[in-house]
């Protein structure tokens, strides 16, 4: 039994050495950026013209509390374009990740509360980026060397 456990520990150690932290951060950035960017692109026609269907969704389906649906449509749409770009380049990564985590919480609580099994993966990736930063393959590293 010890041989099997030791073999598994060695395998995990090897995998840890082969998969660098910067690759995990890059994959987390790319996965979250793709998700939010894709969502943002469904809200516009052309470059950044918010479509009428987006306003309709924010008024009748999403019903985000506290702010008017027109403002919510604009904020969400522009956030879903800006923050994924920042994540892809690894620029202001922690700020972008924190902003998208806030959006994720709002979506989870007010828009699609039954979709926690999807949102938890976004949250885990975003929390990783907030905790560890963008990694070595990023503009954050180039500019600030942290």
Helices, strands, pairings?
Elements: H1 2-18, H2 21-41, E1 44-45, E2 49-50, H3 52-62, H4 69-89, H5 93-111, H6 116-132, H7 139-144
Antiparallel strand pairs: 1-2
Helix pairs in contact: 2-4, 2-6, 3-4, 4-5, 5-6
Poorly predicted runs are none
Number of E-state strands: 2
How are the strands of the largest sheet arranged?
A: 1-2
Radius of gyration based on Cα positions: 19 Å
Strand content: under 5%
Give the helix tally.
7
- Mean pLDDT across all amino acids: 94
What helical percentage do the residues reach? over 70%
What does this structure look like?
It is a single chain. This protein is mainly alpha-helical and about 150 residues long. It has one domain. Helix content is about 75%, strand content about 5%. Strands 1-2 form a two-stranded antiparallel ribbon. Strand 1 (about 45) and strand 2 (about 50) form a beta hairpin. The relative contact order is 0.15. The model has no long low-confidence stretch (mean pLDDT about 95).
What is the compact description of this entry?
Helices cover 77% and strands 3% of the residues. With 146 residues, it is mainly alpha-helical. The chain has one domain.
